[in-house]
Structure formats: structure tokens, C-alpha cells
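pinned: reference chain
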Amino acid sequence: MINELVKEAKKGSKPAFEQLIIYYKNDLYNIARTRLMQIDDIEDAVQETIISAYQSIHKLRNIAKFKSWLITILINNCNYIYKQKKITCISFDSINGDNYLLQESKCDSNIEFDNLLNILDRDEKTVILLYYSEGYNSKEISKMLNINDSTIRNIISRAKNKIKGQLKEVNNYYG
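pinned: its C-alpha cells
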């Protein structure tokens, strides 16, 4: 079904493209949340990704890689926004605002998945989300993020150790 929608979208079908975006919008939003803190920035990144993808879908060579192509565009947009924000300003909202954690979450040992991700740095969050939530392997993530595959595996290992350490602390506190 997805491949058929991608084929139609490549031919210029707006309804097919809209269906694809509806299907992947939550994934895009969740990935952008790992890269950006402000809701406005997250929404801007997703919107820019949708526009860019629509304008360049005819360039997509392998329809089976649509989702990873879309995520790559998103990550590039997030990186651009992050760099712009980092250079131009730091606001009290960005320091104090954790409202993005109020979105839907997955639970592990009664701790919200998002809270566990919060102990990770930006790159670790993105890699863990792509690996566990989106199901990409380290080589696919490596291509998306333009980072060496062994580095991706190290990031996954380091992030897992941080999460395990956090879970141990919580279990010791409540146990």
C-alpha cells in the first residue's frame, strides 16, 4: 500500500502524498522532538520536511526507501534549525521548557520512555529513537545521519548503558 502511494506521489498525485504524510507524521514529529526542544521549531522542521519532500519526490530513486529518505530530509532540517537557534539566541523558554515531554509516550518500568530519553544527549536520542522505535539498523542510521556505522553502534551502546544506569537508580530508590 505505501509503495503504491509513493508511486502515485512521484507521478504528481497530491492526495497520495497527503496520505503518506498522514501515515508518517507522528514518526516525523517524534524524531524532530529528539533533535529540537521548542515545539515551534519541531513543527517548523516537520513542515519544512513536508514541503521539501513534496518538491523533490520526483528525485526519489527507490520507492522502498521513502521513509528513510523522508527522515533524512527531516534530520537535515532539524540540524539547520538547531544551528540557527544556537547561533542567534538562548531564551528562558528553551531553558525551562520541557512541555515536549507531555506528548504521547511509551513506558518501561513505570518510567516514561521520553524521560529516559531526556538523560541522553541529542545524537543519542535520535539514534535510539531510530533504532528502537523506527526499527532501522545501525547501517541505515549511519547513512541517514552521515555518521560511521561503528560510531552509531557505540552511540547505541553508550545510550543503553545510560538508560540501564537510570533504571538501576530508580529501582534502588523504589526497591
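why pinned: Residues 1-104 form a domain with the Rna Polymerase Sigma Factor; Chain: A fold (CATH 1.10.1740.10). DSSP finds nine helices and two strands in the chain.
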